[in-house]
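Below is how a single chain appears once it has passed through the pipeline. First comes the sequence as given, then the structure the pipeline wrote out for it. We keep one example in the README because the format questions we get most often are answered faster by looking than by reading.
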Amino acid sequence: MKTLLLALCFAVSLGHLASAQATPVQDVLQSQRALIEKSSRRTIGPAIDALVASKLPQMQNVLELWQGKQMWQRKADGLFFSATKDADGAYALRDFDSDAVVGTAASSDLKQLKPNSGVRAMIATALVQFQLSDPDPAKRADALNSIARDPEAGLLAPLRSSIEGEADAALRARKIRLERLMSMAFDGDEAVRVAAITDMSGDLGVDFRATLNPILATTRVVSKTAPEANIARELTPGEDDLSMAQAYDALVASGDAPALITDDARDAALEANVSGGRVAGVPLAQLSTEATRDAAYDGLVTRDLAAPRITQADIEASLATFRFFDVYREPSAAVTQAAEAALAASETRVAFSQAADLGLDALSLASIYFLAAIGLAITFGVMGVINMAHGEFIMMGAYTGYVVQLFVPNHTASILIAVPLAFIVTFAAGVALERLVVRWLYHRPLETLLATFGVSIALQQMAKNIFGTQARPLTSPAWLDGAWVLNDVVSISYIRIAIFILALLFLMLFLFIMKRTRLGLETRAVTQNPKMAASMGIDPDRVNMLTFGLGSGIAGIAGVAIGLFAKVTSEMGSDYIVQSFMTVVVGGVGNIWGTLAGAAMIGGFQKSVEFLNPSNTLAAQTYMIIFIIIFIQFRPRGIIALKGRAAGD
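Resulting structure:
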């Protein structure tokens, strides 16, 4: 009797424990227990769907724990828990509904569920439906990213339901856009799909065009009559991008025409029918030409040992029997018509945006060339000196910026210090070059060219000895990182914008110096007539020295600007000296407006060639040089010719 009473009490206690653990979440998990235990990507789908369909708020936590390999199963009864290991090595089991500890177990009594990567990916997709309305904005953003990467029809409804309660304006806009895109692809109502496509017609987003492309995808269909399908177009062999050969190949692929006998197939048939050193009565020794092989093959055909060759007449007869269609994979004609119109509008806007982007790139490149050439325009245009070391002054300015950043880690402060310091360094170097070399070679252009070329080589070698041959970093401030993005097509980096603004500042500064200062007045006087200027008390040697120093100093500042996006090496000046000379010559020697026009022309032409042939930048340089050679044949004095000494030289 006592034993029976103990057994009854034990059974009652087990019943209470079971009833305590028979919770809504546990019931759903137990209903899918076999699939969860197997945890195979091919079979787990219904189990995950059942968990989501339960609409229990705790299921998000269950899926997250399962995905993170933090869900455990008790071997004794198959119940599922989350578990944490305590100091004694035992595991505290937590109920999914209440998150309360409902018992402990040793590791040997538990089985850890470890879903593979495929199952985890499926769980992640299911979690998206919960995360769309998660209180954490970061999780909602992650859910949108997940949907955008792998959109599915089943996610459209939860996405729509989450829009109304979205408080974050940016996330709400993303949800609305994603809902429109998914409506185009997955909504079962044709009118809704057409409306979504029409609403976004002309959109420049890559995601929009990527959504339309599958809708407009076609399949090639060969038929004797028009198929009952959404036909995109009917093609004529020999026209409409369908050659006769392609059309016949399509017939062969569909089983509506025999395959052509290729040379390999012919030779294989000949080898298979060799008998007594002959093929169809033709000795093997005579099968050395294509004509004899064809004759031997025709002999096999007459003996019914090979398939007859297909003639051109046979091909034409077969093609005349069949019709060729491109058929939309999308069955709805209204949807494809709306998609065609929307894509055409989008492509038109893309073309205009690409033109604007090309113009911004050309303007950016022109600004760089203008900065590099403005100093040369002063020395070459005003003084008539061909300074082959001008590129090395650009290099010196860039290295000055690099040295400053070694001592001033704040990049904004270092740039603000480097710009005037680069001017001072290169101004002094320019004055030294003019005093020591150039002043003795005025009116001797060949000797000046050779001397400054030698100086450029010496300066390059000095830079290599000091800084080495590896490129040195000249880091831009953080506020210059990134780009100004107008849309998915048009963007320009902030560094390029800063260089454009710097070029404008230099243009205004140069105009101020030339129009509003004594140095500018004396420079213009020496440029127009040096002898008359000297008779008026102006020292031409002093003006030439200061002018050469000014041009060199501007080159140094240009070096700092260029170094922010280009590699800083001892040879970097060589990359810009040719373009600088071309800019000055094309624009008009000695004229600042001509230099600006020359930079715009060369930058625009180079970017246009690169756009037409983006895989070969060397071609752009070559075509640009050819263009300039042709241009100076018609305007040898440049776009804006200088009056005075340069005009008479």
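The mean pLDDT is 84.

See the next section for the split statistics.
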